[in-house]
Amino acid sequence: MKNKHIIAGNWKMNKSNKEANSFIIEIQNRILDNGNTDVIFCPPFTSLITIVEALKNSQFYVGAQNVHYEIEGAYTGEISVNMLTSIGVEYVIVGHSERRHIFGESDDFINKKIVAVKDSKLIPIFCIGETLEQRNSGHTGKILNDQIEFGLKNIENIDPDNFIIAYEPVWAIGTGETASVLQVEEAHHKIKTYLKNLFGSNGEQVPILYGGSVNEKNAESLINTGGVNGFLIGGSSLKIDSFSEIINIVNNF
Question: Which domain range does residue 133 map to?
């Protein structure tokens, strides 16, 4: 995966099972060859089995939007890594800002998830990013450093082929606001430096995705930005035309 681009579509709480299946079929009809780009669909839990089955023997991958760090137990409403791997899921989003800010997930809680995911056969898509207040206060670097340091606590090594970072400035998620090319490049450089300090050359090679109101109009400039290895996409991943166009843009880069 080191030399590949990655596009992950985070559907959040959208699409029924029927809608999800129809969407996947249409995407497969449109994207006959995604070349050097790994495309990952992250539907709600209710559609995971359907999407895994629909994408068997295809060029696409399936990820979950969340996971618990415990293997089993009295955790109503939660899903374990074993449950995900048992149905063929390969990726899982961890640390998304909506989990942090709406559901109160702490760095320590996220760290436990990452350790559990890393110990399984799943590949984490570890989300980090600052709020607008933190950026305006000049604390972007510290926030990213802290989220990486605490999120990857007690992890001694990292495999760049089985780990993904997603930089998503909180102020750009679902707002229509996109970080400038310079802001993205600076943030990705900081992240790469922090990872190199922690894990050496392996850390430096971890792919870093950008997320935050990515669409077919800004995808080309963003994928050309230094340090950007692909995208974690929200709203545009729900639209067949937009998502297909973004895949084509990245695939032609």
Answer: 5-251
